[in-house]
Amino acid sequence: LATRLPAVGTTVFTRMSSLAAEHDAVNLGQGFPDFACDPKLVEMVAEAMRAGHNQYPPMTGAPALRQAIAAKIAALYGHAYDANAEITVTAGATQALTTAILAVVHPGDEVIVIEPAYDSYMPAVELAGGVVVPVQMALDDAGYHMPWDRVAAAVTPRTRLIVVNTPHNPTGSVLRDADLQVLADIVRGTGILVLSDEVYEHMVYDGHRHASISRHPVLAARSFVVSSFGKTYHTTGWKIGYVAAPAPLMVEFRKVHQYNVFSVNAPMQHGIAAYMANPAPYLELPAFYQRKRDLFRAGLAGSRFELLPADGTYFQCVRYGAISAMPEAAFAEWLTTEIKVAAIPVSPFYRQARESGIVRFCFAKKDETLALALGRLARI
Ligand code: PMP
Ligand code: GLN
């Protein structure tokens, strides 16, 4: 069979989680919390089921949830999306990202993807017949930096889309407000669209605010902004997310969405809509995860791992050059099988694997899980 995706195998997250389970390792690889979500949220979903929300919801998403999402974005980022025409509820961020790409990328269109990149973007561009134009982040002693000059240089008349991700998986770097203006300057006078993956929007640390693309009116007018309740509410297994975009873009998005999935889980949409009435859970998230980040960093401070900055997300990248010269995938496997702590190599986040001597740990774990892992990592 001629494959549509010759470069694609099984994702690194699936592989490392299987290896962690097989070797009884503490799994700091795949990004998901090992603690429970709020029981009140579970109760609200159960209540929605008892109330009879068990049939197809509208294709675009339950109105109550779309309104809650629009109200949240308006309150936090100051952009008023029309809940009917400009918000669609999706089966997680993954579906929103792939559907947006399929909706706007025509065969031969170029899509600029900043590497290291979350693994779903490039295969989606390839399925659409688009051409991936990878642009690598700069990496120096101080960590990863947005390569805006290289992004500007990569723009051609065929550029259809630029994919950005802030806070950024796997590097933990974040855009600041000034970056939004730089991006706006790059796309000014072109027809280039922006796809902004903001699933870690509530994990920005040290008192900074999240630089959502929707804060910048000129960018918002040409962007899809994607988020996921899986990250925000500690429910990665629920696979509910959303996309916000101006109406003309959303018309195209929905043409694909209706045949991609049609609509997504009704009782969870109603439960989440009710839960969103209280902003505290997401407003408290930066402090909640910053404490875990600091605990994890403190635990590694005296070790032979070198900590890179972690300004956002629930990931911590480390250099391991003082421990080993192994390639990243081999080192992550060794950590998992011998040290019994699973990590994710960064190399698969590049189209052509690049070795930087860096692996990623997820700190969205119970304190005791982090303590167990740190005890093992600090001894290496
Ligand atoms: N984008 C990024 C950057 C992610 O880290 C993830 C979660 N792994 C996703 C998208 C997918 O989110 P979801 O689980 O809601 O599909
Ligand atoms: N986003 C998660 C991570 O980066 C994994 C999601 C997945 O397994 N596809 O670890």
The assigned CATH architecture of the largest domain is 3-Layer(aba) Sandwich
- Gyration radius over CA: 20 Å
- Main sheet specs: 7 strands, mixed
> What structural class results from the helix and strand content?
alpha/beta
Terminal Cα span: 46 Å
Domain Aminotransferase class I/classII large: 24-376
Family: Belongs to the class-I pyridoxal-phosphate-dependent aminotransferase family.
InterPro entries: Aminotransferase_I/II_large (IPR004839), Kynurenine-oxoglutarate_AT (IPR051326), PyrdxlP-dep_Trfase (IPR015424), PyrdxlP-dep_Trfase_major (IPR015421), PyrdxlP-dep_Trfase_small (IPR015422)
Protein name: Aminotransferase class I/II-fold pyridoxal phosphate-dependent enzyme
Give a structural overview.
The chain is an alpha/beta fold and 380 residues long. The protein folds into two domains: 12-30 and 284-377, Alpha-Beta Complex (Aspartate Aminotransferase, domain 1); 39-281, Aspartate Aminotransferase, domain 2 (3-Layer(aba) Sandwich), CATH 3.40.640.10. It has helices at 12-22, 39-50, 63-77, 92-104, 121-127, 148-154, 177-187, 217-220, 229-232, 247-260, 266-275, 280-283, 285-300, 328-339, 367-377; strands spanning 26-27, 87-90, 110-115, 131-136, 138-140, 143-145, 159-165, 193-197, 223-228, 241-244, 306-307, 315-319, 341-342, 344-345, 358-362. The strands form four sheets. A seven-stranded mixed sheet has the order 2-10-9-8-7-3-4, sandwiched between helices. A four-stranded antiparallel sheet has the order 11-12-15-14. Strand 3 (110-115), helix 5 (121-127) and strand 4 (131-136) form a beta-alpha-beta unit. The mean pLDDT is 98. Glutamine binds next to loops.
